[in-house]
């Protein structure tokens, strides 16, 4: 059982209240991950600021969810995958592609698949992708700015995935129908 509290607006540290309100504006509720982050107003503020920044990046809504879902899968975030399944559905990604992202598989769209693969390689290699791997990302139709935007998304996911990992954040009832555990898959050779 986690000892990390879930704060509400009425009992959160005062510097977290505005960020909890922002989360409520963004999602129509305050997700448990933000309730946990509220213990550190600086963490919650940074997370919210970067989340909003990535939402205004040059990657479209589906591409943003491809990056987020790939990171959630790779970082084995049992909390984030269910929520991003909902967001991926809202973005218009197909059910098959959402299931591929939930299972670490290949996407039907070659460009989106290249984005997922680049994201996966960035995580696996701690940002040290080869020039050939970077060129594959560019050849798929992405650019320098978008490579940097993937880094922004990975920063957002580092905050939420790691918070959920150490806090054991309980899944909100609104996402419980999408519960997830990382499937066992055979290792792919590069």
Automatic annotation (TrEMBL):
Highest taxon listed in the record's lineage: Bacteria
Residue stretches making up the Carboxymuconolactone decarboxylase-like domain: 49-102
InterPro entries, per database record: AhpD-like, CMD-like
Gene3D superfamilies, per database record: AhpD-like
Name under which the protein is recorded: Carboxymuconolactone decarboxylase family protein
Native source species: Sessilibacter corallicola
Highest classification ranks of the organism: Bacteria, Pseudomonadati, Pseudomonadota, Gammaproteobacteria, Cellvibrionales
């Amino acid at each position: 059982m986690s000892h990390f509290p879930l704060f509400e607006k009425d009992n959160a540290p005062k510097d977290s209240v505005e960020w909890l309100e922002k989360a409520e504006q963004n999602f129509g509720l305050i997700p448990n991950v933000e309730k946990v982050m509220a213990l550190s107003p600086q963490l919650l503020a940074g997370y919210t600021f970067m989340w909003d920044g990535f939402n205004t990046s040059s990657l479209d809504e589906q591409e943003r969810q491809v990056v987020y879902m790939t990171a959630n899968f790779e970082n084995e975030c049992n909390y984030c995958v269910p929520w991003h399944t909902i967001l991926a559905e809202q973005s218009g990604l197909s059910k098959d592609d959402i299931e591929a992202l939930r299972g670490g598989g290949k996407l039907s769209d070659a460009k989106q698949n290249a984005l997922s693969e680049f994201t996966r390689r960035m995580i696996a290699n701690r940002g040290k992708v080869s020039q050939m791997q970077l060129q594959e990302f560019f050849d798929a139709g992405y650019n320098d700015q978008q490579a940097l935007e993937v880094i922004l998304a990975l920063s957002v996911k580092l905050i939420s995935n790691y918070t959920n990992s150490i806090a054991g954040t309980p899944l909100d009832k609104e996402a419980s129908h999408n519960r997830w555990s990382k499937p066992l898959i055979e290792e792919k050779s590069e």
